What does this fold into?
Amino acid sequence: MTYLDLVNSVLRRMRENEVTSVDSNSYSKLIGEFVNDAKHFVENAWDWSALRKTITVNTVDDVISYELTGTNNHFSVLDVINDSSNVFLRNQSSTWMNKAYLVINPVKGAPEFYSYNGVTNDGETIVDLYPKPDKEYTLRFNIVDRPEHLVEDTDRLLVPSMAVIQFATAFASRERGEQGGTSSAELVSIAQATLSDAIAMDASRFPHETVWTDC
It folds into this structure.
């Protein structure tokens, strides 16, 4: 659904007239804020299949820091693979990385470890690699990328829309404070049940991620 579709769906539930743009009036703008609040709440609840993607990083000889373009620092990592060497990279702390480069004489070779090291001025995440690359390697960061706010009327939601609509309606009902009909507490309960069902359905595609196994 588009941003405008989501806002109009909430407006109908609030017994308000639909709008032709989210920015049509102050109340539709407020509903838009609730939709984005609900969107982020739902996105953070699970590693949705619709938000999964791969970011490819090609290393350069003697360069240890790389930007994960397109992350905007709202993501979680599923795994990192050195596709050139066919090995999984392991995450290490900043202290471990500082020790490797500043205390011990660093070595060069195929990267086996990575560590986060802040963000760029544009908010893109930076990662450091160890060992220091001695040539070009192709690294694949498999991540769950959670987008920024919906802004334009035509911006599309990627996660299950019904849970977002129901949470946004609950937020709007609580803000308005009306009596009668379905209470905001009941609306939240309905939204939580819908979210739980949506997570269960999406999680069924990744059974290995919801069952603990001894490594």
Notes: The chain has five helices and eight strands.
